[in-house]
Amino acid sequence: MRWFWVDRFTEFVSGSHASGIKNVALDEEVLDGYSLGYPVLPPTLIIEGLAQVGGILVHEHFQFTKRVVLAKVGKVKYHAPAKPGDTLNYHVRLGRTQGLGAVVNGTSHCNGELQAEADLMFAFLEEGHLVDGPLFNPGDLRAMLRLMNFFHVAKTAEGEPIPYYKNL
Questions:
Q1: First-to-final CA distance of the chain
Q2: How many CA atoms lie within 13 A of 49 on its CB side?
Q3: Which of 27, 72, 136, 150 could join 121 via S-S bond, C-beta 3.0 to 4.6 A?
Q4: Which 3-state string (H, E, C) describes 81-100?
Q5: Which pLDDT score is estimated for 2?
Q6: Considering the chain, what is the average pLDDT of its residues?
Q7: Are residues 61 and 102 in contact, defined by beta-carbon separation less than 8 angstroms?
């Protein structure tokens, strides 16, 4: 099973914000056992989708030089379940950044209605602390970003296309 919880980036502005979508499909295995007889996307995977969009926002802000991992989920509110056939619109905004990590505020909307909101904290893993080497195999992150149309929508703060960073 692939673990991409965002299907496509729809907007990306370096150092500011990003948006993406997740289509919830009835054939996804994760819907089968979560709530028998009432298929919904587990709320933790909505958080993971927001974290993936937010993590890329943080990662790109540091030109893909940091090992960015979700460290803490702060305040979370769920307003409605995500059911098969729904399209979740994820929106994240970069908050504070510092040498050890960053904060992202995220929301998920469905059919124009607020579906979930979360504050996410990311940490940077230093070389030799918990993991050695990159978190992705060479080229894997670039391939993943291509699949999600990142390079079609990603812009710098000045409105220029995001460059292909050598770290990708």
A1: 23
A2: 29
A3: 72
A4: CCCCCCEEEEEEEEEEEECC
A5: 59
A6: 91
A7: yes
In DSSP terms, 97 is beta-bridged to 102
d(CA 78, CA 100): 29
CB 32 within 8 A of CB 39: yes
pLDDT of residue 146: 93
d(CA 43, CA 47): 7
Question: In Å, what is the CA distance from 79 to each residue of 32, 61, 82, 118, 150?
Answer: 22, 30, 10, 11, 28
Owner of token pair 């979508």: 21
Tell me the Cα Rg of the chain. 16
The pLDDT score that the predictor gives to residue 3 is 76
Question: Which of 16-20, 31-35, 67-71, 151-155 is predicted least confidently?
Answer: 31-35
Residues 46/53, Cβ–Cβ less than 8 Å? no
> Which two three-digit tokens encode residue 17?
């914000």
pTM of the full structure? 0.92
Strand 67-78 relative to strand 17-23, pairing = unpaired
Using CA of residue 158, residue 9, residue 46, residue 133, what is the dihedral sign?
negative
